[in-house]
Amino acid sequence: MIPSNFEFVRAGSVDEALSALTEHGDEAKLIAGGHSLLPLMKLRLAVPGVLIDVARLTDLSYVKVDGDEVAIGATTRHFELNTSQVAKDEVPLLAHVAGLVGDPQVRHRGTIGGTVAHADSASDVPTALLALDAKLIAQGPKGKREIAIADFYLGFFETVLEPDEMLVEVRVPKLGSSVGWGYEKFVRRENDWPIVAVAAVDGKVAMANMAGTVIRASATEQALSSGASIEDAAASAAEGTSPSSDMHADADYRQHLARLLTKRALHTAASA
Amino acid sequence: MQVSMTVNGQSRTDDVEPRLLLVHYLREVVGLRATNIGCDTTSCGACTVIVDGLTVKSCTVLAAQADGSEVTTLEGLSGKDGAMHPVPAAFHSEHGLQCGFCTPGMVMASIGLLKDNPHPTDREVREGLEGNLCRCTGYHNIVKAVLKAAEAGAAAGTVGASEVSA
Lengths: 272, 166
What we know:
The complex is a heterodimer.
Chain A: E1 7-10, H1 14-24, E2 28-31, H2 37-42, E3 50-53, E4 63-66, E5 69-73, H3 78-83, H4 85-90, H5 92-98, H6 104-109, H7 112-118, H8 124-131, E6 135-140, E7 143-148, E8 153-155, E9 158-159, E10 166-173, E11 181-186, E12 196-201, E13 204-208, E14 215-216, H9 218-225, H10 230-234, H11 251-270
Chain B: E1 2-7, E2 10-15, H1 22-29, E3 48-51, E4 54-57, E5 70-72, H2 86-93, H3 103-116, H4 122-128, H5 139-150, E6 158-159, E7 162-163
Parallel strand pairs in B: 1-5
Antiparallel strand pairs in B: 1-2, 3-4, 3-5, 6-7
Helix pairs in contact in B: 2-5
């Protein structure tokens, strides 16, 4: 399968990427690892006229402590996040989940900025970031702005990023190793997208593939904060969700998985 | 557009379409046909090659993205004296293949795995090869081959002068 024709622009800096975005407008897509975008382009489900390569912006590749947060540059690859000692020490949930994306070859290419901006509701890393209340830093012609991840996703493949903005950094609270966490991912093959996945950390619960975007299990969180047992809180994980049905699972089964995986993730988090 | 890269130690520059995939570049422009195209959907790993020390699926990388990189394919593994690299040698001695279609990708992925984890357990080999499918289901001997190759030490996780990472 071969993608449709496009123009390839190599950005040497964030400013170059932004001016290319401004110049080409809706025609243009940023590409970092390309492991979500290229498969769509090969199927001609995405037909961008211009690809702007930001993978070489190595100044955006870092995982570092900044005050009481961990800052992760947008072009940081999954394997770098997975093996980062800073991530393992300060935000182990995220380091762990980065190691569950695809397979080793995919993790060598895919980036945190790419998976966050791609906005597939079945993505592992955004699910963990939602449970962590991550802040996303976008940069555009007018400068930088901070967006709470809870406000970032509008729908399937849709975010609040403007056409001339790019994601440059992801920030998560420095939790250290004493805060319990759990991540449960249900797949048929090890390197697949989750059929459903649940991240639990610090009383917060986020789910993948239960709606058009990654979502929080609000009813479960409320139950937990009012002192409910894990069993009782997890029983309401699917409340208010209307997941899709597909060849992997129908909606009822996804809701069952949401309850079950939430229970397991909360138990894991509580046993830390 | 022009792309320049080093393939198996030889640097070259070619004029390509931006949409040319790295696997097609390697097979059709460079003429190295060991790298197979299996599923063409980033699933099966038959097209695995090593780019700047990292295993990648070359059906999901543009040649343009690999510009300036150092690429190693199965053909680049033999030493100057023609000696077999420890990993393909172990696939040979342990009969780590049936039809052989997945083998080039399995070998390259195994080298990456052994660089990161020179003494893997059986389970760690299976997990490390999660991105590579054998449709003959000949996994047992593939795992045996990787464990056998590990006995060769650091050379098993190395290609030429450059080290790789899984």
